[in-house]
Design a protein that fits this description.
CATH architecture of one domain in chain A: Sandwich
Number of helices of chain A: 0
CATH topology of one domain in chain A: Immunoglobulin-like
Strand order of the largest sheet of chain A: 1-2-8-6-5
Helix content of chain A: under 10%
Radius of gyration of chain A: 20 Å
Number of helices of chain B: 2
Shape of chain B: flat
CATH class of one domain in chain A: Mainly Beta
Number of strands of chain A: 10
Order of helices and strands of chain A: EEEEEEEEEE
Mean pLDDT of chain B: 85
CATH class of the largest domain in chain B: Mainly Beta
Structural class of chain A: mainly beta
Oligomer: heterodimer
Distance between the termini of chain A: 70 Å
Order of helices and strands of chain B: HHEEEEEEEE
Number of strands of chain B: 8
Chain lengths: ~130, ~140
């Protein structure tokens, strides 16, 4: 049985990122990242996100994933007990490899965003000889 | 403590000892609690119904099991991990996998046959209607004349 789970959602430090125009809290999704020769794979736990609001941007070498979550407030009910908060998700990564941005694939299932970032064919190493005068 | 002890007292060692004691105290107090409170739950209530939500990203709805007895709800689930191929390198692993079980006490007894659960976008939403026998009853006071 899992005894060392870290269940606390981490709130994003908004001072460190671009200012937002949407109110409410922003959380940093937990991610797994792995790579093979052809691609990088990012899996992010983003429960409750409305699929249509998922935004993935790749600018220079910075990949940003974002998703909005509609607050859940059932009518005629009172929140009598809470352990977690609801908010949007946002996180950025700096990628070291060059990614073929036209072939990025994204899917969202059961609250997990999966991104496949194919690498651009590595450029052939070119030897540069230093001229000596 | 006599004067001799006071002279021999090493403040650094003393601080180290206190630090170690504090660490032990926190280890004992927090670690088991963390395990028990997964998943985090929110509870919405009114007189007739309880709604409980939990974030369970990456779980297959078939791997989530609920059971209700009286005023206790148990949620069990399993999120299987994945295996990497030989040519794959893991850079970061923050997500958690494996089994969990959590039992909570509900504010009132519920009608176990009428419990409903939905799972959408990784969020579990359970609706538990109050048991008829547990509903508050109005008692008419007869007037004797």
């Amino acid at each position: 049985m899992a005894t060392t789970r870290n269940i606390q959602k981490r709130e994003t430090d908004t001072m460190q990122t671009t200012e937002r125009t949407r109110s409410g809290k922003v959380f940093t999704p937990l991610v797994d990242i792995y790579e093979n020769n052809d691609e990088m794979v990012v899996m992010a736990d983003m429960p409750g996100v409305d699929e249509k609001t998922i935004d993935i941007t790749l600018e220079q070498h910075v990949l940003t994933i974002e998703g909005q979550v509609k607050p859940y407030i059932p009518e005629g009910f009172n929140l009598s007990y809470w352990e977690y908060e609801i908010g949007d998700y946002r996180r950025s990564f700096t990628l070291t490899d060059t990614i073929d941005r036209d072939k990025i694939e994204a899917s969202y299932k059961n609250g997990v965003l999966m991104l496949k970032l194919p690498k651009v064919e590595p450029a052939k190493p070119r030897k540069i000889t230093v001229k000596t005068s | 403590m006599n004067l001799n002890d006071l002279i021999n007292l090493n403040p650094w060692r003393e601080m180290d000892r206190i630090q170690r004691q504090m660490n032990r105290l926190f280890d004992n107090a927090w670690t088991p609690e963390r395990g028990r409170t997964y998943p985090a739950l929110n509870m919405w209530t009114n007189e007739e119904t309880i709604k409980i939500t939990a974030e369970l990203p990456g779980y297959n709805p078939h791997d989530i099991h609920l059971s209700v007895s009286g005023s206790e709800l148990t949620i069990r689930g399993n999120r299987p991990g994945y295996e990497l191929r030989q040519d794959e390198t893991l850079h970061r692993q923050e997500r958690v996998f494996g089994e969990f079980e959590r039992t909570i006490r509900l504010p009132f007894e519920v009608e176990s046959d009428l419990v409903e659960a939905k799972f959408q976008n990784g969020v579990l939403n359970i609706t538990l209607p109050r048991a008829e026998a547990d509903k508050p009853k109005k008692i008419q006071i007869k007037l004797s004349q």
